[in-house]
Amino acid sequence: MDQVLEPQGPKGLPYVGSLWRFSASDRLDWLSGLTDEYGDVSKFRLLKEEFYLVNHPDYVRDVLTSKVKQYSKDAAGFKIIKKVIGESVFTTTGEVWKRKRTLAQPQFHKKKINNLSSIMITAIQEMLERWESNCRQKKPLDIKQEMMEITLGVVTKTLFSTGLKDDEFKTVVDVFTPILKETNNRLLYPFKFLRHFKSKVNQQYKRNIETLDRIIFGIIEKRRSGSEQFEDLLQMLINARDEGTGMPLTDVELRDEVMTIFIAGHETTANALSWLWIVLSEKPAIRAEVEREVTAVLGDRIPDVTDFPKLNYTLNVFKEVLRLYPPVPVIARRAEREDQLGPYSIKRNGTILFSPYLLHRHADFWERPEEFDPQRFEKNAQIKRHPFAYLPFGGGPRICIGINFALMEAVFIIAMVTQRFRLALPVGSNVKPAFEITYRPKGKVHIHLHKKAS
Ligand code: HEM
Q1: How do residues 395-410 score in pLDDT, each as one tens digit?
Q2: Among protein residues, the one whose CA lies closest to atom 9 of ligand 1
Q3: Of all atoms in ligand 1, which is nearest to the CA of residue 397?
Q4: CATH number assigned to the domain with residue range 91-330+372-451, chosen from the 4 options 1.10.630.10, 1.10.1740.10, 3.30.499.10, 3.30.70.980
Q5: Measuring from atom 37 of ligand 1, which residue has the nearest CA?
Q6: Nearest residue to 42 via CA among 22, 20, 16
Q7: Structure pTM?
């Protein structure tokens, strides 16, 4: 019989285990230190729960594919996320998830996303008009805020096309940031009792979710009562039918999917794009190559869907940003039963953590891991790589449903901004990362806009 190894790791403190390390802002460095000290599978305790950090693509592949049924997505944080997005394709498991994924998947196929490209492009143009006036006033932008607004704008317009009035959009923008912030807090500091207090924060959180609900249910009702067909995601979801029963989604199911697309579909892309502008500002040779490609493919004209495959270098730059700055830096699963990953034993109910951030830097699978090199994503280089060494979108059946959406949106944003502007960090800027649930630049990041001569 093969040797069975018990994963090793820090003992931590009585009762809390390693909670104080895991809750600290440098938790990614701490996790990275665990892999250095204890190897590809290590173990630690948070309160009463056993956690395993798995940092080998072979074992991660097993968790996400052949053993997907025994490693469920029902990890502790899901109850918290469900308070906002309900029972959607993101939060459900088993047969319920399967039905929802089968219904939603076709709406995210390349062809359908291609149909949404003109809505995306119009939303990006609207943002750039606002940037023009900022540029005249020579005001630096907070790039994180701008990328959040543009990706929220894109996802809102692709969901509802013309269905959202200006004041409703403003309300969505206003309530979203606090909802995301408080959800992050609850995930990082999961002390249940705090949520039952009728504190100001808790009541505001509840009110913000109710505000979004009112807007979303309002739009669904208007759609259901009208006869006009729209070319947007909401319409596609309304028209979707269960393969087995022929039944459409109910209003509550629709609300949960819409809320999921809202949440899953903008902050991740916004964080990656914020990193992208920081990288381009610090690496003039890469920026020059992006500018060369954008000029060659588009010149001054507005892009359309046929341009997307031609902007290959730009896409590879974005993929390399997702490697070094993965918006989802850690993914969790729960072991439904006792198991073995490679030689390592895993206990029932243990939480498995794997980290795209660490896997993307694993020296056995990446040459010069810390170096920014978009050539890694040329076809020949990709073929040689372990498919589970690059996981910005997760993997297996629960891989991100929005990959095509996110990649197309990002490439159009990069290309259209590059046509008109050059972005530069002020001299001496030293942007640091913040790792909460997502991996993003810390604090406000001011960036100067330089208008290109037309
Ligand atoms: C750069 C942008 C994005 C990144 C890095 C990203 C990352 C991820 C990751 C890592 C997962 C898997 C989580 C897990 O296995 O536990 C996921 C799932 C998901 N993502 Fe994304 N995502 C992005 C954009 C989007 C967009 C634009 C949408 C929708 C418009 C979206 C919708 C979803 C949904 C619905 C799931 C759940 C799928 C399921 O469990 O079946 N994401 N995403």
Answers
A1: 999 999 999 999 999 9
A2: 393
A3: 41
A4: 1.10.630.10
A5: 90
A6: 22
A7: 0.94
